[in-house]
Every structure is written in C-alpha cells, then in structure tokens.
C-alpha cells in the first residue's frame, strides 16, 4: 500500500510551518526508506543553501544520513553539526509500530564562535565572503532555550500529530481501496472475456497495493501443475507461460486462508518458481468449491488487512470466472446443438455426396475449432480410402492423400476401427517417424466413421485455432457426431443410387435420351398443362432417312454408333425447355412446350439443316450417302384433342415427309390429310 503520510503531506506542512514559526528553527520530515525529505523544508538556512552549491554537498549528505540511521536504530534524538557548523537534531518517529520517519530540525548557531569557524573555511570551499552575512542571529527561541529541550518538546508534539495524520490517512486509504475494489468487483458481472477479467484483476491490485510482481496461474491437465496465463509487474516475461508445481505450496496451506510465504524455503524452490522470488501469496479463485485458477503475488509484503481485502476481491473474481465459464459452456453447448441440428438436417435432406462431404467437414471443423481436416471414404472398387473433402490442402493434391486400409495413420484407424488422439506427435510412439504429418501444431485426432458393423471411412482434424491440443472431450464429441456423419453418408449413398436407378429407368440405354415410357408421361403432363393454361404444345417426330440401308451395310454396331451421335446432336440443338426422347428404332421425338405451330416449324427446319451440316455425323455416314432426317410436326390443340391423336397426326406428317422425298419437315394439316 502507498505510504499514507505522503497522501496527507499538505496537512503536516501546515503544522510544520506553525512549529517552525514558534521555534524559529528549520524543520522537515525525512523518509529513510526513500533517502529524501517527504515534506518541504521550512525556513531553510541561507548557509545550507550556499554549502549545497559546493563540493561539500556530498559530505554533508553522507554525514546527515549517518545521523538519521543512528536515530532510527537507537530510537533516541541525535544531535550533530552540519558542514556549515550549524547545530541540528534528528528526532526518530515511529508510527503505529509500522512506519519509521525522522524529523530534522535546528540549523542554528548557539555561539558566535561557531559561525566564525565556518567563515574561516568558507573561502576554501569556494563560497565568496560577499555572500556571507556579517553576523548571525542568536535570538531565535530554539537557540536561547537549547536545542535539547526544544527537540524533546517537538518529539512529543510531532509524534502525536503525525500519528493522528497517519491513522486518518490509513482509514481514508483503506476506504478508498475498499471503494475501488467494490466498484471493480461489481464491474466483473458485465465482463464476458476471461482474459479481460484477469487483466482487470491484476492491474487493479497491482496499482492499489503497489505489487512488484503478480501472476494468475491456471491448473493444467498434468497432476499438480499450473501454467501462468496473465502477468503483472517487474517479472512479466519470467512468469508468462511458466509451469509451476503449486500443489506443493497448497499442501502447506491451512483451511481456506491464503497461503503466505515470506522467506525462501525448500518448498518454494521445489514449486519451480524463479529462484529469486523472496515471498509468495496464493489466493485461489474459487468457482463454487473448486479453484482451477490462483492469483500469486510475489516479492511484496502485505499486511493482514491488505491480505483480507485481496482475498475478498478474489472471491468476487472467482464468482465472475465461474459465470464466464458457465456462459462459455452454454455457448459451446449451443454450438454443439446447432452443429448436430445441421447434421440432422443433412440426414433428413438428401444431398449429393460431393456437397454432403464438404458440408460435413466444414461443420465438424467449426464445431471443434480446427483449421485443417479431411474426410476419407472407402472406395470399394479401388479398395482405398479416397479423400472426399479436405481443408488446408489444395484440391489438385487430394489424391496424394489416398491410402489403402492399414496404410498410414488414416488407414490404420480405418482397419482397426480405433480412434487416434495425438497430443504431441513428436513424442508419441504410435506415430512413426516417417509417417508424421505436417501440421502447424503437434496435435491431431483421427476417428473411424462406423455404422453398425461397417466402417465407411475416417475423419481427420488438426491444428486447433487456439493453438491448444485436442482433448479427450474433443475426441468424445467427434466420436458422438461420427455416428450422425455415418448415417448422413449412407443415406446420401442410397439417395444417389436411387436417383441413378430412377435415371436408368427413364433413360434409353443406347443414346442417353429419355425413353419411350417417360416420353409418354411427359407428353401427357404437357397436354394437361396446355389445357389448363390454354397454351399450345407441339410435337415433332424425327426419322433417319435410309437408315435400313446403312444398317445392312455397316451392321448393327455401325447403326448404333449413328443413333448415339444423333442423340448427342439432338441434345445440343434443342432448347432447355424441350424434351428429346428415343421413340423406337431410328425414330426420335421432341416435345416443344409453349410452342405454336409456326415456331415449331422454324425449330424443326433448323434441326434438319443442323443435322445435315453436322460434320461428325456426315463423316460416319459418307460412305453410303449424306445423312438426312425427315420430320413430322403436329400441335395441340390445333391438330389433336388427345395424347394419342397428337402422336398419330405427327406420325402421319412424318409419313408424308417420306413420301414427298425425305429430308424435309411436314406440318400436319387436318384439311389436307383428311
């Protein structure tokens, strides 16, 4: 705590001025601990001022310090003469048996010869005679009555008055300290960051109690070990991240009182604190009945009252720490619930595997606060673990991380079905030297993705954002969500297989176009839509000219190749809303939604010309003749009232195109065709 007299100096100086006027003597209070006056000098003698400007100043100060030490040690008034041969006294004053001060007074000549002696030496010291007074005044009360009698009187008066000022200052200081601690303690309730709380606690106590060094230690997972997490004072660098065995000291503590060590002992050295620590106070920051953090104050002597105040303040801080930790746990639980909810949504909402893999990895990385990770799934065809999603590595090098079951870290985890938690890969015998992955931190976790008796793959995480190691809690959480991940992957695999079967069921195996059954379903839907919204829908039937001759010449394989090429051409030539299908043999159909007869004819004519100009098709067909198509066109509701009638009339138009010489488009006309 700051020396209380300093806080009330102006009050004493008023009293000091009155005493100096009454006695006619020089007076001031000296602080031995700081080796300097702690009040202004009242009635400083002119000759002292002149001596201080010479080389005798050092001798004067040394002799003066010796007299102060003598008075303090003997607790008796000390009398002496200064370099100017002036008489002075040193009165020892001890306040409340705690603080030692000295009152310096006098600086007078009691006989003319004393001044005459000084005048003889003054010129040798470089003091001009012109600056010296001719005579000195011996009429001051202190000189007449004798310094010994005045000093005894002043000792009684000054001690009583200073004790009163000192005690009043103590009470005011304690009140100010308590008010500050109470206000800061109340502010703890609004702090939501543990680092800010630690900093506030240390800075508040450090300033109020003038602490030399202080550190907040947090208990680590290692038995009895604590690590410095926040520091204050002279030894900041030495205590930051220092790992100490504070349990050795806690064992010496009785009850719930703070632990106090005021001398260097073997126990203090065994605790692995710096060897130059001279004292140690430990204040546990209790959260309920437990204390995972402790405030340690070093190299500072505290009174019992100060210890009690700090202990009470630490109790407030402990409650705030508990509140922050509960808030953090709640936020962590909320984050877990959101992640599990997202994983559940992935299960309920089928996603294609590519998107699912990346979503799963992203959610898992966020949940465990990791920077790097990969999701590997077994490719049964290749019998290898294939990287399906990865963060921290560029996509082009994904395949470099594929591995066979039993090979490498991921392969071993997959084959054994046992998760792997590594907190320091540089010293973990389970990680082979040549197989050590390159991560920013030495900790990673790898968990198999199991579903019933089947292992689907492995998820790997590394490099926590905080730089910490992965914990057992992290492993348990990853294993818990691993079952959700496995279910999501299996459901998506089944979804994709179902979609593939659905696609196969509606697709022509040869050309990849829609098949006849699906074409009929779509045409029925478009006709119903046309009826409801009174919009036209057109249908064209395309037939390859002279295809039988080509088939007979080049065989079915050659014919199939032409059908495949024509299917690709049709997909490229039609609009996005149009539906192309293989109707049968060499016949193809195209549904043109929301298209009237005139627009449909334009589309059909362009289609014929594009096919005729298609170099790939013509090159295959050139040995026989140029490949051309005939097209029949009919529109609903102009040319038909039903699904069957629309197909029949488009087919009749195609027949006319063949009769009229092929390689043309014929539009159905009810008048002509009747």
TrEMBL record:
Biological process per Gene Ontology, one example term: negative regulation of bacterial-type flagellum-dependent cell motility
EC category: transferase
Catalytic reactions on record: 2 GTP = 3',3'-c-di-GMP + 2 diphosphate
Domain GGDEF, first and last residues per copy: 535-670
PROSITE patterns: GGDEF
GO molecular function: diguanylate cyclase activity
This enzyme's EC code(s): 2.7.7.65
Protein name: diguanylate cyclase
Species the sequence originates in: Candidatus Manganitrophus noduliformans
Organism classification: Bacteria, Pseudomonadati, Nitrospirota, Nitrospiria, Candidatus Troglogloeales
């Amino acid at each position: 705590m700051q020396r209380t007299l300093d806080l009330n100096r102006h009050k004493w100086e008023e009293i000091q001025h009155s005493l100096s006027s009454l006695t006619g003597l020089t007076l001031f209070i000296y602080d031995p601990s700081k080796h300097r006056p702690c009040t202004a000098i009242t009635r400083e003698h002119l000759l002292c001022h002149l001596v201080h400007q010479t080389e005798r100043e050092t001798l004067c100060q040394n002799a003066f310090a010796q007299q102060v030490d003598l008075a303090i040690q003997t607790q008796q008034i000390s009398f002496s003469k200064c370099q100017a041969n002036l008489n002075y006294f040193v009165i020892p004053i001890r306040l409340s048996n705690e603080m030692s001060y000295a009152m310096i007074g006098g600086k007078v000549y009691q006989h003319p010869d004393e001044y005459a002696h000084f005048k003889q030496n003054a010129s040798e010291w470089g003091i001009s005679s012109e600056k010296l007074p001719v005579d000195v005044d011996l009429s001051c009360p202190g000189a007449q009555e004798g310094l010994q009698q005045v000093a005894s009187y002043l000792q009684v008066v000054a001690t009583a008055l200073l004790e009163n000022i000192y005690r009043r200052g103590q009470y005011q200081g304690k009140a100010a300290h308590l008010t500050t601690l109470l206000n800061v303690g109340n502010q703890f309730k609004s702090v939501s960051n543990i680092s800010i709380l630690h900093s506030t606690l240390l800075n508040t106590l450090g300033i109020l109690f003038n602490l030399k060094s202080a550190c907040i230690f947090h208990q680590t997972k290692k038995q009895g070990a604590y690590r410095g997490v926040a520091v204050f004072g002279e030894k900041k660098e030495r205590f930051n991240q220092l790992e100490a065995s504070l349990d050795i000291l806690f064992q010496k503590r009785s009850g719930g009182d703070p632990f106090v060590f005021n001398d260097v002992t073997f126990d203090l050295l065994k605790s692995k604190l710096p060897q130059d620590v001279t004292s140690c106070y430990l204040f546990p920051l209790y959260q309920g009945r437990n204390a995972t953090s402790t405030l340690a104050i070093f190299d500072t002597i505290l009174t019992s009252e100060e210890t009690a105040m700090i202990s009470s303040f630490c109790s407030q801080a402990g409650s705030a720490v508990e509140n922050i930790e509960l808030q953090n746990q709640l936020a962590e639980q909320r984050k877990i619930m959101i992640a599990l909810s997202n994983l559940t949504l992935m299960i309920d909402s089928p996603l294609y595997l590519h998107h699912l893999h990346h979503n799963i990895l992203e959610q898992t990385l966020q949940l465990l606060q990791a920077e790097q990770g990969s999701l590997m799934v077994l490719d049964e065809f290749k019998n290898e673990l294939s990287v399906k999603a990865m963060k921290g590595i560029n996509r082009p090098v994904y395949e470099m991380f594929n591995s066979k079951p039993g090979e490498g870290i991921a392969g071993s985890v997959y084959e054994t079905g046992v998760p792997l938690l590594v907190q320091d890969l540089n010293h973990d015998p389970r990680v082979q030297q040549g197989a050590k992955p390159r991560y920013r931190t030495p900790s990673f976790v790898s968990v198999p993705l199991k579903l019933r008796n089947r292992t689907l793959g492995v998820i790997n995480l590394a490099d926590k954002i905080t730089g910490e190691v992965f914990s057992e809690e992290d492993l348990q959480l990853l294993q818990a969500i691993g079952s959700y991940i496995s279910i999501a992957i299996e459901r998506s695999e089944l979804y994709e297989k179902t979609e593939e079967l659905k696609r196969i069921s509606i697709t022509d195996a040869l050309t990849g176009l829609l098949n006849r059954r699906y074409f009929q379903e779509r045409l029925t839907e478009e006709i119903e839509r046309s009826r409801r919204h009174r919009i036209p829908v057109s249908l064209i039937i395309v037939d390859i000219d002279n295809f039988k001759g080509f088939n007979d010449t080049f065989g079915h394989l050659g014919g199939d190749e032409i059908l495949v090429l024509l299917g690709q051409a049709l997909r490229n030539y039609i609009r996005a809303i149009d539906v192309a299908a293989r109707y049968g043999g060499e016949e193809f159909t195209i549904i043109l939604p929301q298209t009237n007869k005139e627009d449909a004819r334009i589309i059909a004519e362009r289609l014929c010309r594009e096919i005729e100009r298609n170099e790939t098709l013509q090159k295959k067909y050139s040995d026989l003749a140029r490949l051309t198509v005939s097209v029949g066109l009919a529109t609903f509701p102009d040319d038909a009232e039903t699904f069957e009638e629309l197909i029949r009339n488009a087919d009749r138009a195609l027949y006319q195109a063949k009769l009229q010489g092929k390689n043309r488009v014929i539009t159905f006309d009810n008048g002509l065709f009747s």
